[in-house]
Amino acid sequence: MSLLDSLKDVLNQYGNSSTQNTANATAHFDQVSQAAPPNVIAEGLAAVFHSDQTPAFSNIVGNLFSQSNGEQKAGLLNQLLASVGPSALSQLAGGGALASLLGGATTSVTPEQANQISPEVVQQIANHAEKNDPSIIDKASSFYAQHPTLIKTLGGAALSIALAKVAERQKAA
């Protein structure tokens, strides 16, 4: 019996998409994120990013960025920048600030540099990245699956969507 099997009762609460248990979603997500492998959590997050019941991907990423520590910010920015490429930065409002911060180099963003970037600029970069590389959603989902405490800042409705996806996957297994 897998750890997720032991959470069957919890996941069953999210298996019916017509009902959402947002009141307990944070506690349930905490339980599930401790038991599930990161790729399962990433699938749940991808469902949140794709959902028409949540803000746009770029808005969610901007929000998560604002809640992140320097290392998390740098990790996300490096994912986004790999998808947009350095030449695209100059086309974005606020991207010039990031380009000048990096000194025009294509090196990785450090936590110190990431702390100087506003969530609004990250939101613009995420929007551009999504248009140019739709796989960025899966990459961001995998990245954030490594940070379940940060994911909990999304709130009950978003966590319910993630848990519903995990429940769906568990039923199929």
Short précis:
By secondary structure, the protein is mainly alpha-helical. It has 13 helices and no strands.
Could you describe the 3D structure shown?
By secondary structure, this protein is an all-alpha fold. It has one domain (3-172). Helix content is 69%, strand content 0%. The model has no long low-confidence stretch (mean pLDDT 85).
Architecture blueprint of SSEs:
Layout lengths: L2 H4 L1 H5 L12 H11 L2 H13 L6 H11 L2 H15 L1 H4 L5 H7 L9 H4 L4 H14 L3 H10 L2 H4 L4 H17 L1
Amount of helix: 55-70%
Number of strands: 0
**End-to-end CA span:** 12 Å
Low-confidence stretches: none
Number of helices: 13
Domain unit count: 1
Mean pLDDT, to the nearest integer, reads: 85
Percentage beta strand: under 5%
Descriptive key words:
0% strand; mainly alpha; 13 helices; 173 residues
